User: What shape does this take?
Amino acid sequence: MEQILTELYCDIDDFSKAFDEYWRRHLITDGTPVMPKCAMSLAEIMTIVIFFHLSNHRTFKWYYKIYVCNFLKNYFPKTLSYNRFVEVMQSAIVPLTVYLMKFRTGKCSGISFLDSTTLDVCHNRRINSHKVFKDMAERGKSSTGWFYGFKLHLIINDEGEILSFCLTAGNVDDRDWQTISVLTQEIFGKLFADKGYISQKLFEKLFQKDITLITKIKKNMKNKLMDIFDKVMLRKRAVIESVNDFLKNICQIEHTRHRSFANFVVNLLSGLIAYSFLPKKPSLNIRNSLALTD
Assistant: This one.
């Protein structure tokens, strides 16, 4: 774990220095710092919130107060109080977003998988009394039933790397074109999805962007001939379900203890970044198989 922490900090430290310089050059007013004045640097704050998702701890408060402030004291000698750290880490949203989108996403190989997963913010019985995400979270329905919260829309490649993501309210349709257009900005080739994405209009719009949407058909639909490779890839589409499982159960992007929307976003972004550092991700090993055949 210490080796992972060191590698993580070194990578983030290099990024934070470049980001800080870029940020200062493009500010409207001169001299405004990226982070509020505090004893800890941006790299330290980002490292702590990301490493939480790799540390197997279940609650951030226990992780910070017991683990970081005691066992990692040599790595972070100027640790803040827990309440102060929670306030300061909210200002890391922009750096975390840039770091994730520019440096921690994979490359499209022409074979991509599309899916969405729910992010519950409270139990259904507490919806009427829930206030933290009022006017932001919405009721939605998934294959497992009704929920209250958000949807995380993902596109991954055949190696399990996240290519793009989008966060929407829970009541947004998976086939919403505004969401799909954001997700597929840098996608090409074949895009495999489940039956929830069946739409002639969506297929035509994606085809205009040189993207072929491939889904299974419903029972009341006419069967059409399909390439054998596409049939095999549709059967392997469950790889993105495994990615969602990794994000929720290992990287812990979902829990119902948030006290602000900003902290929810920090937790989500840092969880997605932490996933990119996992040594083993759900993968189809297509490229290795093709290399062996050649």
About this structure: Strands lie at 111-120, 138-142, 145-157, 162-169, 189-193, 211-215. The radius of gyration is 21 Å.
